[in-house]
Amino acid sequence: MLVTTLLKGIVIGIVIALPVGPVGVLCVRRTLFEGPVFGIVSGLGAATADTIYSIVAGFGLTAVREEILAYEHWLGAAGGAFLLYLGLKALLSREAPVAEPLDGEALLGAYASTFALTIINPITILAFAAIFAQLGVAEGATLADIGALVLGVFLGSLLWWLGICFGIASVRQFVGRGFALTLLSRISGTILTFSGAALLAAAIIGLMKSGR
Fold first, then answer.
1. Where are the domains of the chain?
2. How many CB atoms lie within 10 A of CB 174?
3. What does the pLDDT read at residue 136?
4. pLDDT of residue 203
5. Contact in structure between 131 and 53 (CB atoms under 8 Å)
6. Distance, CA of 3 to CA of 9 (rounded, Å)
7. pLDDT for the residue numbered 78
């Protein structure tokens, strides 16, 4: 029974992580330009945030969920501003990108940034609540059942990010150092910039409507 619940959690983790949004673009960019280790650690940050939200949904911590949603616009503004910064930094950089680890960015920073971007996205917790309502543990489930489901979510999310990172790492050597690498840098920077601007604009509109 626990094995079935674990497998169910793995499926949920993959489904939640499947949409390749700004965090996915960031993981791909880091894998490509900074090396697979940075990409994997970044994916681990996103998987950790998914796991925390699965705990909230799995244990029915409604108060925690409502508290997070109460600040959804402020959280969205913070995430949008950070993505906008990363995107503009990539677009405005005049140095040719080199597919080597960049100086000055610690692994902890790579982990923390994707963790923060995932945890401040209120859509994630709403998605978990909806999926857990359909596929989650049954009423009267034991602590072991919920634990197996949460573990499965972590493994599923991590497997997805590992797949992306290893996939990008396998073709990284064929990209080279010239025009193709520069083009990929500009494309990823543009995606991050527009994602950040859209998220920031939506958050500002939401704050204006709510009067906060």
1. 2-210
2. 7
3. 57
4. 75
5. no
6. 10
7. 75
